[in-house]
Amino acid sequence: MKERKAVITGIGCVTPVGTGAEGLWEGLRRGESAVGPIDRFVPSGLKSRIAAQIRDFEPQQYMDRKRAHRTDRYSQLAIASGRLALEHAGLDPSQLESDRTGVFMGSALGGIAYAEEQCGQFMSGGYRNVSPTLGFSVFGGASSCNMAMEFGFTGPNETNSMSCASGAVAIGRALQAIRRGEADTILAGGSEAPLSPLSFGAFDMLRAMSTRNEQPDSASRPFDRSRDGFVMGEGAAVLVIEEEGHARARGATILAELSGFGVSNDAHHMSAPLPCGTQAQRAMRLALHDADMLQEDIGYVNAHGSSTPLNDVTESRVIRSVFGSRPVAVSGTKGLYGHPLGASGAIEAAITALSLSRGWLPPTINLQDPDNEAELDLVTGFGRNMRLDAALSNSYGFGGINATLAFRRR
């Protein structure tokens, strides 16, 4: 039996730098950070008071008033991104075979911000003041279930919660499902809406976030020696992943092939990567093997690049260990939109696919003094025009999860 291949035919996203595939691309080309003072709540008593916020999101542009009222921001961002992805792919949900169309999503925290809000309602007014939809809104699977209901898809449906690797894991699982013949079309990605006092404050107590409050636009600085932590963000991204024959039969524009997936676990520490990076290396090598690629085939790596002291130096060593002395272009794009936790891997998968399709690599902004003992070829400045045959995207999560996706230009 001929192996079923998976291709990307649509991208939808809602991010701090832009909405939709074109909005995201324009934000990347501008190269301006979306990080600023947080105003979603009053951050009194916190060391970090900055975030990458989405300023212009109106859920009723993407769903009817009833569904918007019954869903929290986490699910709203997912539904909006799914709708934008379908539109970008030229797909009408009603014309897809429902049983052959699935939804795979990822999120680190799910509806925790809404749960926090409703806890406040309970404390001020008791049970009668709590929304009856609370239980349906806060569980992790709310995003994929609400998307399936919104679009009428009855195929495979799941949401994983593997921290900051969740979006990448969802896309990798979608690739596996396409190959196994479980579906012909899958919406896959990640969504995160974590900007609430308790969630934000918990990471603040860990001292994991940047405190460059007076210079927020330069706070997220992957691979820079003066980085002092990540900047929390919010957002969502969804890819339309189709079996290649299905896509070609309808004359779809193919942005890239989703070729491989590798995942591993450090089993070392909840917040610190394994210093030697052997498991992160293994995830990259597994993705290459799964894609039937050699390291010589890869021209670009979109790094996890969280802007934390431990992650970036470890990832630099990991990339160099996989590629040896051969130069491969690398960029960390979180300087632009912060770190939207479980959505970041999906946003970066979208960026990688667009970069392959359009022949331009986004820059690593705020990189003034590279902490680059591995001597990576870091893309800086205004980006780089470069035609590539293949690329990788790395995502790492709390608990030691390592996920790598491999892509080919088509």
Keywords:
single chain; 410 residues; alpha/beta; Peroxisomal Thiolase, Chain A, domain 1; 12-stranded mixed β-sheet; two-stranded antiparallel sheet
Record the SSE blueprint.
Layout: E1 6-15, E2 18-19, H1 20-30, E3 35-37, E4 50-52, H2 65-70, H3 73-89, E5 101-106, H4 112-125, H5 134-138, H6 142-151, E6 157-160, H7 166-180, E7 185-192, H8 197-205, E8 235-243, H9 244-249, E9 256-265, H10 278-290, E10 300-302, H11 309-323, E11 329-331, H12 334-337, H13 344-358, E12 360-361, E13 377-378, E14 384-385, E15 390-397, E16 401-408
Parallel strand pairs: 5-6, 5-7, 10-11, 10-15, 11-13
Antiparallel strand pairs: 1-2, 1-8, 1-9, 3-4, 7-8, 9-16, 12-14, 15-16
Class by alpha and beta content: alpha/beta
Tell me about the largest β-sheet.
Answer: 12 strands, mixed
Distance between the terminal alpha carbons, to the nearest Å?
23 Å
Total of domains: 2
Low-pLDDT segments: none
CATH topology of the largest domain: Peroxisomal Thiolase, Chain A, domain 1
Helix content: 25-40%
Under CATH at level 1, the class of the largest domain stands as Alpha Beta
Shape: globular
Order of helices and strands: EEHEEHHEHHHEHEHEHEHEHEHHEEEEE
Q: Please name the fourth-level CATH homologous superfamily of the largest domain.
A: Thiolase/Chalcone synthase
- The overall strand count is 16
Brief rundown of the structure:
The protein folds into two domains: 6-249, Peroxisomal Thiolase, Chain A, domain 1 (3-Layer(aba) Sandwich); 261-408, Peroxisomal Thiolase, Chain A, domain 1, CATH 3.40.47.
